[in-house]
Design goal:
- It is a single chain.
- The protein is mainly α.
- The protein has two domains: about 100 residues, no CATH class; about 60 residues.
- Strand 2 and strand 3 form a beta hairpin.
- The longest helix has 23 residues.
- It starts with 13 loop residues before the first strand and ends in a 9-residue tail after the last helix.
């Protein structure tokens, strides 16, 4: 199949974008390859929330201070009962344990509020629609423009004008929204 470039109205130098990227006989320059690359994978969600990291760091600091105080202070505790000695030895670690428990709670709350990750079915569907539109794109090697032929995205979808390569990634996203409506829009966070 060949498609006619909307700018030069010729089809002899038009190739699908995916084929142009894979072409080894007439390879594209690196900046052009970057502009025509498929839609990027979604970024994975951060592993730990900032609050959990801060509370864990405080717990570590207080634990180090507790260890140092136990190492430096060598009091004779033989005159005290066992409960006092246990409290004296375990006391410096109570605050770090409380802070670690608070960090765990903060992280659980943050994960429950976090938007769906890159593996969610919604984001996979959005990515699939964007990839479908990207695969419908064509490149005119003569004019150095991209375009979408009529009905290449879906039946009845109009042809695009000549698209400057710098605007191709944006066109892929907006064409997906136009062609498939709300199902192509990313989930708002």
């Amino acid at each position: 199949m060949s498609a006619t470039c909307p700018q030069c109205e010729a089809s002899d130098r038009s190739v699908p974008v995916s084929r142009a990227l894979a072409d080894t006989t007439e390879p594209l320059e690196e900046p052009v390859r970057a502009l025509l690359a498929p839609p990027p994978e979604p970024k994975p969600a951060r592993e730990l929330s900032g609050g959990a990291i801060a509370l864990s760091a405080l717990a570590a600091i207080f634990a180090v201070v507790g260890i140092l105080s136990l190492v430096r202070d060598r009091e004779d505790l033989s005159g005290y009962d066992a409960a006092y000695r246990a409290g004296y030895l375990a006391g410096p670690f109570i605050l770090p344990l409380i802070l670690l428990a608070a960090a765990a709670i903060v992280e659980l709350v943050a994960r429950s509020r976090r938007r769906p990750g890159s593996g969610s079915p919604e984001e996979a569907a959005h990515r699939q629609l964007h990839a479908r539109v990207w695969q419908a794109g064509w490149l005119c090697r003569r004019c150095r423009v991209a375009f979408f032929p009529e009905a290449s995205i879906r039946p009845g979808f109009p042809a695009s004008p000549a698209i400057p390569l710098e605007q191709f990634p944006h066109w892929v996203m907006t064409a997906a929204e136009r062609a498939f409506g709300a199902q192509a829009r990313p989930v708002a966070g």
